[in-house]
Amino acid sequence: MKKLLSLPPNLVASFHEITGFSPEEYFCTNDPVGHKLGSGGGTTWLLEECYRAWNKGESFGEWLHGDRRILLHAGGQSRRLPSYAPSGKILTPVPVFRWERGQRLSQTLLDLQLPLYERLMNLAPKGINTMIVSGDVYIRAAEQLPPVPDADVVCYGLWLDSSVATDHGVFVSDRRTPSVLKCMLQKPSVQTLNDLLQDHFYLTDIGVWLLSDRAVELLMKRSKRGNDIVEYDLYSEFGCALGTDPQIADDELRSLRVEILPLPGGEFYHYGTSREMISSTLAVQNIVNDQREIMHRGRKPHPSIFIQNALTDIEITPGNTNMWIENSHVGKGWTVSHDNVITGVPRNDWDISLAPGQCVDIVPVGDVSFVIRTYNIGSKFAGSMQQARIFPVTDDLSDMGRMLSWMLSTDYVTRCETDTEASFAAELAGHRMMSAEEISNEANLVRLVAQRRDFRKTNWAALARNHEHSVFYQLDLDDAARSFASAGIEMPRPIGNDLPLLTRIHDAMFRSEVCRLKGGEWQTDEQRAFSLLREGLTASVLAEKQQPRMSVYSDQIVWGRSPVRIDIAGGWTDTPPFCLMEGGNVINLAIELNGQPPLQTYVRPCREPHIVCRSIDLGAVEVIDTYGQLADFSHVGSPFSIPKAALVLAGFQPGFSTVRYPSLRAQLEDFGCGIELTLLSAIPAGSGLGTSSILAATVLGAVSDFCSLAWDKNEIGRRTLVLEQMLTTGGGWQDQFGGVLHGVKLLQTQRGFSQNPLVRWLPDDIYTQPEYAQCHLLYYTGITRTAKNILSEIVRRMFLNNGAQLRLQREMKAHTMDMYEAIQRHDFNQAGRLVGKSWMQNQAIDAGTNPPAVRAMTDLIDDLCLGYKLPGAGGGGYLYMVAKDPEAAARIKQTLNANRPNSNARFVDMSLSRKGMQVSRS
User: Fold this and answer.
1) What are phi and psi of 579, to 5 degrees?
2) The overall pTM is greater than 0.90
3) How distant, in Å, are the alpha carbons of 548, 647, 711, 717 from that of 707?
């Protein structure tokens, strides 16, 4: 998805250098200097400039249709936000939210804006390829987003009081058709809005517009005279010509289909002025006040004090309210009050005093010089003030401090607002004077950002050192590790073992990642992180020692058998440590293959006091005579790792049993017999159907019955999670609960190390009714992939609070509830389409989940399916498909049977299991 940015002219040249964003994803330009184009004309200019730079020989229409793009208009002069006028409001640094996990210390307003915009574009139907948004707002959607309707123009709004809406555009609709636009009004009076409420609704425009290709073409047509782009406004002209009863008569625009939607749980934070920058940031920080959700014990004297990328050598007090210090050194000689904004100040030893409302901005110009700007927190730089040359330039730090002190003590900027000759005071004589406009045009942004990074380097060390009272371990530690490695920041001192286990886990993986990036030995810290995770997940179960007792006749066999599972939504949200931090949501189906539960275990007594493990499908046998042999279960790929670990958990090992025995032989003699345990997995390895976890659960279920341990299905699922940690294969909880428990179900857990899913069974009509059952197809691809390496890569990013992955897993959780609603409504088509969305999410979290060989298969049947996915981690195994109808299902079978990718590929009959795991005796 491409991002097209309209920026201040000076920012365009250095944008990619100072942000690190790819020039292949982010296109930047500015409106032609001296020409006012408006938001509509500016959109046309931005699209045409991007087309000229990026097209590969196709026509404009083909180019427009060929990709999705987000257009951000952020090219204004930012007169009312002087501190970030040179770099553009879109790059305003925003403090990490105290209640959020996975944010970057270097985040900007742009970083916060884009995830929502990208989510909306991903929900848009085909034909909507363009989004137009404003660059000076942070919009947040606290609830799950519905699909974007199929229309030519889709606009989002908020329900706001008339006292607020009067300063914005509003979308008016008839109460009988609330999603259909009747007309758009620009800044209507409060009286007009109140009158409308009698038989209309109105939504306040938040500047998020999605346009079809046709709507874009008409917008561009209206903003051109011949080949020239003219001033044309997206909102007051294009917008006011839309709807069933528009304010501006234009039959062609009126014919466009328009939908208006309230943004679910929408919140709107404006960053247009100095005061709004502080008030909006404060409001965002206070979205969450539940102390259980705030991950550090902060010590800020007042919540409206924001200090970032800065060194402060003074004591900040509760009286310093509405304080913003960024990219600055506030030395020991400084005195601040309240309503102060301090930006860009280099390291200094000055004596400076700021009165209430006074602000300082020092901006690098040229190679060595700085321009000194003082202003008041409410300054607007209106009219000719933007061009008034009243700000002095110097390259001498002492001179800079003297001039700054004088400018503040004389309330210089206030005098200049009424008398521009005040700039010619003797204290400033001999210096070049610059205007606010010239500062924005000539600022050396590379130097500005370099200074910010230098201050942030010092902040990194301080945050890590003070981690109990800072946001350090809730940050995107992946980003933090890159910063530590690239800047050569000294590693923080080791943290104590008395800290919360999750903190210690994050710390170990952070250290591992820094060492890996620096080319050092990193495996030890990584292993420590996984070891601590195992400790947290297994401690409560391992503390419960067992006393196995023989509970069968000498000729009896205990027989356990289980279905496998297909996860259709929420996979990966059940995986620690994500589920430990945020809980998980998964929907899966328990299925039998070819009419049989494919995973089976047989346990029977044997005369000799030893343990015999057999595998029917692998043709392997192992005789175990000692505790040492039984404890050797951590070899991945060993045919009997699972039964060995299961018997250890059942108490056949010192430390796991309530009674201590000198040997395994002695324990089995006291038990009353030896044990013969046979496995049958009638399914290939790497199937993606949760085979190993469900087989482990089946073994535990059979062993529990054989040894009188009385574990119910929930306890078996819990112990399966422990068993997999003992094997070091990791994994979550959805596989075992997916097979052990029957039918279609939603599984949910809360945060914490106790992961006991709440189960909600769902109606199964869309899987079992004859008209639907034949549409669910399962195809073995003949391609296998082991999940352990996949798991370790993805889990590593979870340990590191990788922001992109956390956002994706949260979307997966929310998506699971969409699937829940679709199944509850018996909506076969929607449930099928949501399977396709699950597949897209799986690919986003792991690019290797859809290898070329699998893609070649799905390309053949894509138009015949509502959705499809590889269950589990993907990469191979089985392909689950939801055909559009029985005829499409028949064509899918015909197509894949005629194009088998290998000799093992085949269709397998699947049916919903109505019993889940069963354990019985002969």
Assistant:
1) -65, -25
2) yes
3) 5, 10, 10, 17
